[in-house]
């Protein structure tokens, strides 16, 4: 990707995030995105078919950058390290995650995809030993519970420290997985 293409995509991403603070993706037109980014529509259509295509690009970029950020975390014997790093990353990118995890309520799949990615990363590091036939259900439970906690934390203006929230999420997940650990 050349510099002009990177700049165009960055401007469109910033415009989308800004517009998502005010309205749902279904209410955002390509014309509006282009006006906000100060690019013409033909340039937009060189990269994306519609606003949903741009949203999908932004979502994938967030998942990739989050994964890259967390890959720098040294493996330890506690998934709380990854959770803490993830929470710090959310807080550091507050505007982006507030829009993508809270305000963009048209899009309920993205937060779950993002958290599922984090959980799989933790599982690969810690070998949680969840039976294969129960993994999907276990991840669904952990993702939905963790997502609700993180969304509440953001809505509550980060009233708990990242460390305390990471400990809480890890403790709840660990207790939930205790049944599998004791069955070994």
From TrEMBL:
UniProt keyword terms in alphabetical order: DNA-binding
InterPro entries on file: Homeodomain-like_sf, HTH-type_Tx_Regulator, HTH_TetR, TetR_C_Firmicutes
Domain HTH tetR-type, residue spans: 6-66
Keyword Disulfide bond: no
The organism's place on the tree of life at top rank: Bacteria
DNA-binding region, residue intervals: 29-48
PANTHER family membership: ACREF/ENVCD OPERON REPRESSOR-RELATED, TETR-FAMILY TRANSCRIPTIONAL REGULATOR
Name of the protein in its database record: TetR/AcrR family transcriptional regulator
Organism, scientific name: Paenibacillus tritici
